[in-house]
Design goal:
It contains 4 helices and 6 strands; from the N terminus they run H-E-E-H-E-E-H-H-E-E. By secondary structure, it is of the alpha+beta class.
């Protein structure tokens, strides 16, 4: 009768930590979304500048080939990846959707490096002025790998979104 009186199930803390860690370790990732329905993570990179459709087409092909090669070398099969772009002028967003079952921290590193190498200073990066301590980032990467492994074993319900808010990271259930 009164929906507001129903207790909502809190999301698994590992899922929230996973999203927060991704945003901390990879300063070029502006937002990350976990969708339990299809068990995927979607990463968004923000770009400043004017781009042609051809610019993005070349990049998407470059990423698709690189990821396919990476998966072949890692012996991964059945991995799903979707790439798309929102907007062309001003600030636009490059979105990468990956299944959690086969995603690794190394692949995330590769994806962010590909975007950084291809777009250069047009890729918006949060830590331009103050880069976190190297030891801290390495510990976060280890923790991120642990969270990814936990996500493969757990069944997390709902949809979680992690975003940057200046120097803070916010994760919420949607």
């Amino acid at each position: 009768m009164f929906d507001f009186l129903k207790k909502t199930k809190k999301p698994d803390p590992d899922a929230g930590r996973l999203l927060a860690s991704i945003l901390v370790v990879f300063p070029t990732v502006q937002s990350v979304t976990y969708d339990s329905k299809d068990e995927t993570l979607e990463f968004s990179f923000a770009l400043n500048g004017k781009f042609s459709h051809d610019d993005f087409e070349k990049f998407l092909n470059y990423v698709a080939e690189s990821v396919e090669t990476f998966h072949h070398l890692e012996g991964l099969s059945g991995a799903t990846i979707e790439l798309n772009v929102e907007g062309i002028y001003g600030t636009c967003f490059l979105n990468v959707r990956r299944d959690v079952a086969t995603l690794t921290c190394r692949e995330l590193s590769m994806l962010t490096e590909l975007a950084s190498n291809y777009f250069g200073d047009r890729l918006i990066e949060e830590y331009e002025d103050s880069i976190p301590d190297e030891e801290y980032l390495m510990a976060q990467e280890d923790y991120l790998e642990q969270c990814l492994n936990n996500m493969r074993q757990l069944r997390v319900e709902g949809r979680l979104v992690g975003v940057r808010e200046h120097e803070r990271v916010v994760v919420y259930s949607r």
